[in-house]
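Reviewer comment 2.1 asked that we show a complete input and output for one of the modelled complexes. We chose the heme C case, as it is the one discussed in the main text.
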Amino acid sequence: MKSNKSTNIFSIGIILLLLFTTGCYYDQVLPVEPEGDIHYAQDMQPFFDARCASCHPDDSQPDLQLGTSYNSLISGNYINTSDPSSSKLYVKISAGSSMESFATETERAMTLKWIEQGAQNN
Ligand code: HEC
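Response of the prediction step:
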């Protein structure tokens, strides 16, 4: 096939389009759905320690410090195991709420899953 200016421009266009679209695909940050059982000590408390505890000391509502956070969440009615997604802990870190920016998609999903699994102190 004889190559001319317009086919070259067309090919470059296609290549740029491919680079652009595949580039976008790989740039997407897909939320990681947490698998298996969520454990309070191994999963939830490290999340609170890393993202929440500095602003939620032991005299706050909820207290999210290691050792006292679980009791604070339960006694403060932040957890509703019969309707997990309405739990105040979950609602507060979800889209449109004031703590939204402190949790990632994965941490939100983990929190909901932990509540769905019975919100155990495990
Ligand atoms: C920069 C400080 C800061 C960080 C970090 C922070 N919080 Fe808060 N949090 C606050 C303040 C201030 C309030 C009270 C005002 C409000 O409700 O927005 C609050 C309120 C809350 C409430 C509602 C309390 C109530 O009784 O109404 C919950 C639940 C909560 N935070 C959970 C979290 C969780 C979970 C994290 C970590 C993902 C977190 N917060 C991180 C400062 C913070």
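The pocket of heme C is lined by residues 51-52, 55-56, 61-62, 78, 88-89, 92-93, 98-99, 102-103 (CB under 6 Å). We note this here for comparison with the apo prediction described in Section 3.2.
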